[in-house]
């Protein structure tokens, strides 16, 4: 048995507690805390393991939002206790200034990784509880915040007229460093689509296959509208009754959870945010673009203090079922294949990977499997400086040569790597960089490739 202290410090006249340790059939009366009006405490001897509990505060069922909580099978929110053997000491203890510290009183929340002395079965159960608790917390935060809460005080939104030539469009994207730009349809007075780095890759591939709009071979005259129509016809057989679907978008009043789900389910990088109250046809109802990095950054910046109580964030990524790992590297693989390229392969090999796998970046390794750098979709814009007519030179470039050109054109690059020992919190901090969407997991000494962890991976485990 382990002696634990249960505390209610949030004010009340009467307080009691019940839990799974009594099969929810009995309430223990809590005692007033001396010199702290409205606070109550109770000491209990509990068996080793996992326990859920909740309070009865002045006749109302409550849980402490400042402590770990999970949802049970019936949707009831309960606080969480994790009790371990006296000789099983965790690496890190959650600091609670109101907790009485002694050798015989154990805290119920562990913020660090479980010690190796904890049995494997108990450590696995502990991790599952950490995941469940984190999902409950993150889901609540995202549901209670809207896109409007995330809108910057002042910002600019770049839009392309659908009649702009694709060549000009991509050159502007390169010059402004924009991976995606909304397309404005002046006839319907709305956003009719998005021009992305993937469109640029599609065009380069079609040029190589001599399939691009034969009646309009002069790319200076090929408009964005022409390209989108061609792309639509390529994806839909002749005679198909399929119609172009409206652009996926969000309203400024949508919850951040709804926006995350839209982005993840549709496998897109960002979505435009509309102001539905804008009824004037002469005004542009688009407010901003919402993306996963921006949402993650917003939550990280606004919720730093509450996020400190999320024990899952302190776990090494190698212990969490997250990311895509090479076989035998120690991670908990999701069954997918890690896509990477060797330094001497042609840069055009990256085209098919980007388009088929729908990923944003590819690790480039040397002959020993050690990481050289990461090649991203937007690097192709940089590689040709946004000029689709420069596609011919790409046939002659290796991945190593392509990276050298990217360095020459764009200068310093952000950090794209992490380690097996990196915590989920450290990974989230790196992925909050609006440029970085995937991190390459490498050995800290040899830099050999171990796996990939993406922004979507993080949000999938948290949601």
Fold and architecture overview:
The protein has 13 helices and 22 strands. With 463 residues, the chain is an alpha+beta fold. The protein folds into 3 domains: 2-117, Immunoglobulins (Immunoglobulin-like), CATH 2.60.40.10; 148-291, Roll (CBS-domain); 298-462, CBS-domain (Roll). The strands form 6 sheets. Strands 2, 3, 6, 7, 8 and 9 form a 6-stranded antiparallel β-sheet that branches. It has a 4-stranded mixed β-sheet with strand order 16-22-21-20. The chain is elongated. The relative contact order is 0.10. The model is unreliable at 86-117 (pLDDT under 50).
Strand proportion: 15-25%
CATH architecture level-2 label of the largest domain: Roll
Straight-line N-to-C gap: 34 Å
CATH superfamily of the largest domain: CBS-domain
Briefly note the structural class of the backbone.
Answer: alpha+beta
CATH class of the largest domain: Alpha Beta
On the 0-100 scale, what is the average pLDDT? 77
Quick one: how many beta strands? 22
Radius of gyration: 27 Å
Number of helices: 13
Question: Might you state the CATH topology name of the largest domain?
Answer: CBS-domain
* Total count of domains: 3
Low-pLDDT segments, ≥5 res: 86-117
């Amino acid at each position: 048995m382990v002696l634990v202290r249960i505390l209610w410090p949030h004010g009340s006249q009467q307080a009691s507690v019940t839990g799974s340790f009594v099969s929810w059939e009995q309430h223990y009366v809590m005692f007033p805390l001396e010199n702290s009006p409205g606070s109550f405490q109770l000491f209990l001897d509990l068996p080793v393991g996992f326990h859920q509990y909740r309070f009865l505060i002045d006749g109302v069922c409550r849980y402490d939002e400042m402590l770990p909580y999970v949802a049970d099978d019936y949707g009831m929110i309960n606080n969480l206790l994790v009790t371990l053997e006296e000789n099983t000491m965790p690496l890190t203890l959650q600091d609670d200034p109101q907790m009485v510290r002694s050798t015989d009183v154990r805290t119920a929340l562990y913020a660090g990784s479980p010690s190796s002395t904890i049995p494997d079965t108990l450590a696995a159960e502990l991790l599952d509880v950490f995941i469940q608790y984190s999902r409950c917390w993150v889901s609540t935060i995202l549901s209670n915040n809207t896109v409007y809460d995330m809108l910057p005080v002042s910002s600019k939104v770049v839009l392309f007229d659908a009649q702009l030539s694709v060549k000009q469009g991509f050159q502007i994207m390169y010059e402004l460093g924009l991976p995606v730009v909304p397309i404005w349809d002046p006839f319907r007075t709305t956003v009719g689509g998005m021009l992305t780095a993937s469109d640029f890759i599609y065009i380069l591939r079609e040029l190589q296959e001599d399939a691009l709009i034969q009646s309009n071979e002069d790319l200076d005259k090929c408009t964005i509208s022409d390209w989108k129509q061609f792309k639509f016809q390529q994806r839909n057989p002749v005679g198909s009754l399929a119609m172009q679907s409206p652009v996926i978008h969000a309203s400024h009043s949508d919850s951040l959870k709804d926006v995350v789900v839209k982005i993840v389910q549709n496998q897109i990088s960002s979505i435009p945010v509309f102001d539905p109250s804008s009824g004037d046809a002469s005004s542009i109802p688009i407010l901003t673009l919402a993306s996963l990095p921006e949402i993650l950054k917003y939550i990280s910046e606004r919720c730093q203090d509450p996020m400190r109580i999320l024990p899952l964030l302190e776990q090494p990524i190698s212990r969490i079922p997250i990311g895509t790992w090479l076989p035998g590297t120690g991670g908990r693989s999701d069954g997918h294949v890690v896509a990477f390229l060797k330094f001497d392969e042609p840069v055009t090999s990256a085209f098919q990977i980007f388009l088929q796998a729908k990923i944003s970046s590819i690790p480039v390794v040397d002959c020993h499997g050690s990481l050289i750098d990461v090649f991203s979709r937007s690097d192709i814009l940089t590689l040709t400086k946004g000029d689709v007519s420069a596609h011919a030179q790409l046939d002659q470039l290796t991945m190593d040569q392509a990276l050298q050109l990217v360095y020459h054109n764009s200068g310093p690059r952000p950090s794209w790597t992490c380690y097996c020992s990196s915590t989920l919190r450290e990974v989230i901090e790196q992925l909050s960089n609006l440029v970085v969407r995937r991190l390459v997991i490498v050995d800290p000494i040899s830099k050999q490739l171990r796996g990939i962890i993406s922004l979507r991976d993080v949000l999938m485990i948290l949601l």
